[in-house]
Design goal:
The complex is a heterodimer. Chain A is mainly beta. Chain A contains three helices and 16 strands. A 16-stranded antiparallel β-barrel of chain A has the order 1-2-3-4-5-6-7-8-9-10-11-12-13-14-15-16. Chain A is globular, with a radius of gyration of 21 Å. In chain A, 31% of the residues are buried. About 3% of the residues of chain A have low confidence. By secondary structure, chain B is an alpha/beta fold. In chain B, strands 2-1-3-4 form a four-stranded parallel β-sheet, with helices on both faces. Chain B has a four-stranded parallel β-sheet with strand order 6-5-7-8, sandwiched between helices. In chain B, helix 5 runs antiparallel to helix 6. The termini of chain B are far apart. Classes of the chains: A mainly beta, B alpha/beta. At the A-B interface, strand 8 of A face helix 3 and helix 4 of B.
Chain lengths: 361, 308
């Protein structure tokens, strides 16, 4: 039988359980178990002749079902299942399942299981919590559409200093990279990563966080992949909403096969956003991506760069429902080739049911 | 010269030892900070996550709070869901087992007092940002603040037994003072003949309840939801029907909506009021917070009488 059958069966079971179990009928007595559902609907519509072949359809991109609760006096547990649209049908798969604790070792937080790796900015947040609809081009190339999740162990240490300084390091299987339905293959070196993050209060309302990131994996063929990047976010809290947000990531990727030349690429985005009220926000994302080692047949460097401008208007009726409208204007440039343009509109409707856990800064 | 250096080092040593010896307390809101300052005295060093000008519902789990939590001996929360959106993340991020929920160094004052506006029947998000545990703004009532002070004194005494008696004495004094002042404030407010008011959010429910003033309408259609044109019209009608003469806007919010309502009503005054200690520069203690509210109501009543 097809895997989709099982996953759909599981969906029916879980939803049935959630809606009929006395556990969810009211407060789950004494367990602390909370659950939430996130429904993310996205549409991409062609705009103009030189479009990117968008589907011109408004569809449910994913439905996430999360459970989180204290496991015991030391550990907390989280399970996140997501149903994605793939080849015309919704396939339920495990996004995250991990136990974590910050009570075991002083200054330390430990996470074990399958989770989104604690690096960068976007990778640490579920897609429905991003301030824009879709991932920037570099992110798709380096981390896949939704970010990197894998099974392993993550440790983070809060330095006993007057300022916030946190070192996170983790090791995961690395059998697969990004979203895949294959089992993958045993890597020559497992995926390992680190992030050194800091935070500064500029005043009572304005704060900024920054991180230095590193990731490495050598796959079964010996291809060594190394990512180095910075992330930055600054927010000004205007009472009940952020009236200013600046989010930035810049990453360098290097792929080094056992034999042959290495490939290097650079990519990033800058997203400034203004909040006009508790409900209306406007931001504009600027994307950049370039393969630094592109060469012609004679070995001469080919200059290339992909750019995008993505103005995004957001309406939030509350913290549990948001609607976004974005215009994607992408330009692909490469020496000796004509520039290529893609234009599309994106719309998103997202809502949450249940108790969403507290957000990070 | 050497003796001066030695004396300086000794001074620094003594100073740092005394600073370290103090109980390091973090409160979520400034009202609680003010209470702890009085009850704890010199034996306690206290800081609040939330500033008086910030609405504690909407604080973010800033990493700088985690650093503070990491070094705290005691975290005092208002509770009743007020800090639910950020405090759990701050406590987990602080990685200080002693102050995590359920531990000796965590204290929730919401459990100490009788709570108002506890929803009955089924509630959902269709009712806005409603707190299932009831209205969390308990520190806006001087009598409940007395009870909270006693609870805080007990908790501080558990952590610093040698100063327990002093903590309890100061809390008793605070409670007695609040009871005495409340009687005075009740008389003064009764003299204004203010019976019904409109507020922006239900911050002032405990204060108004204590002083016998009814909240005729709230500018938010649902808790946490900004006013809509339709709801404003309803507020105008309700205010007319109830003879409301005063709109109190908690100073976290813009008073332009209230001014808009006042334009449609005869003889209605709008006052923007701090609803937390340090919510305005001159509001430095819990006493001055209530005193300012009483003065505002008195001032508005006087101005309305002069207008008639």
């Amino acid at each position: 039988m097809r895997p989709a059958f099982f996953s759909n069966l599981l969906t029916v079971f879980i939803f049935g359980f959630c809606t009929h179990s006395p556990l969810f009928a009211d407060a789950p007595g004494g367990t602390g178990l909370s659950t939430f559902l996130s429904v993310d609907m996205v549409g991409e519509l062609n705009a103009g002749k030189s479009s990117n072949g968008a589907r011109d359809a408004f569809e449910i991109r994913e439905v996430e079902l999360s459970f989180f609760s204290p496991v015991d006096h030391l550990f907390e547990g989280m399970v996140n299942l997501a149903a994605h649209r793939e080849d015309g049908q919704y396939v339920l798969e495990l996004h995250e399942a991990f136990a974590s604790t910050s009570k075991l070792i002083p200054y330390s937080k430990i996470k074990v299981g399958q989770y989104f790796l604690g690096i960068g900015r976007l990778n640490r947040f579920h897609r429905h919590d991003w301030p824009f609809i879709s991932a920037p081009q570099f992110f798709v190339n380096f981390f896949d559409d939704e970010g990197l999740s894998d099974t392993g162990l993550e440790y983070s240490f809060l330095a006993p200093l007057p300022i916030f300084m946190e070192l996170t390091a983790g090791v995961t299987n690395g059998w697969v990279y990004g979203h895949t339905h294959s089992e993958g293959a045993k890597p020559k070196a497992p995926m390992h990563y680190a992030r050194l993050g800091s935070f500064f209060d500029l005043n009572d309302t304005l704060g900024m966080a920054a991180g230095l990131n590193y990731l490495n994996r050598r796959d079964d063929s010996g291809l060594d992949m190394q990512l180095i990047g910075i992330d930055f976010v600054a927010k000004n809290n205007a009472g009940s909403y952020s009236n200013m947000l600046v989010q930035l990531e810049l990453w360098h990727s290097q792929l080094k096969p056992e034999v042959g030349a290495k490939t290097r690429a650079l990519g990033g985005y800058l997203f400034p956003q203004m909040g006009f009220s508790k409900t209306v926000f406007f931001g504009c994302r600027l994307d950049y991506y370039s393969v630094l080692t592109l060469e012609d047949a004679l070995g001469d460097e080919i200059s290339n760069a992909d750019y995008a401008i993505v103005p995004t208007l957001t309406y939030k009726s509350s913290e549990f429902a948001s609607f976004k409208l974005a215009y994607n204007y992408k330009v692909y440039t490469q020496d000796s080739l004509n520039d290529r343009y893609e234009r599309s509109f994106e719309i998103q409707a997202n809502y949450l049911l249940g108790a969403h856990p507290a957000h990070e800064f | 010269m050497n003796s001066k250096i030695i004396a300086f080092i000794c001074f620094c040593g003594v100073w740092s030892t005394s600073a370290l010896a103090k109980l390091n307390v973090l409160t979520t809101i400034t009202d609680l900070k003010s209470i702890v300052e009085e009850v704890g005295g010199k034996e306690v060093k206290v800081e609040s996550f939330c500033r008086g000008s910030q609405d504690a519902h909407y604080l973010e789990a800033k990493p700088s709070y985690m650093i503070k939590t990491n070094r705290a001996d005691l975290v005092i929360a208002n509770g009743l869901g007020l800090e639910g959106a950020w405090l759990p993340k701050v406590l987990a991020g602080g990685r200080n087992t002693n102050v995590m929920q359920g531990m000796k160094g965590y204290f929730d004052v919401g459990t100490l007092v009788k709570v108002l506006e506890v929803p009955t029947g089924a509630i959902s998000r269709a009712d806005g940002d409603v707190h299932p545990e009831g209205n969390p703004h308990i520190t806006l009532d001087p009598i409940r603040v007395g009870e909270i002070a006693m609870g805080i004194a007990k908790k501080l005494g558990e952590l610093e037994p040698k100063h327990a008696a002093a903590f309890m004495q100061r809390a008793t004094n605070l409670k007695a003072r609040m009871e005495a002042k409340t009687k005075e404030w009740q008389k003064r407010i009764a003299a204004t003949e203010t019976k019904k008011v409109v507020t922006y959010h239900k911050f002032l429910s405990y204060f108004l309840d204590r002083f016998g003033i009814e909240t005729a309408a709230v500018l938010e259609p649902f808790p946490g939801v900004p006013p809509t044109a339709r709801h404003i019209m309803e507020v105008i009608k309700t205010s007319q029907k109830n003879g409301v003469e005063l709109i109190l806007v908690e100073n976290y919010f813009d008073d332009s909506i209230a001014q808009r309502v006042a334009r449609d009503l005869k003889s209605v005054r709008v006052s923007s009021v701090p609803v937390a200690v340090e919510g305005r520069k001159d509001i430095k203690t819990i006493d001055s917070l209530y005193e300012n509210l009483v003065l505002t109501i008195e001032g508005d009543a006087k101005a309305l009488r002069a207008k008639r």
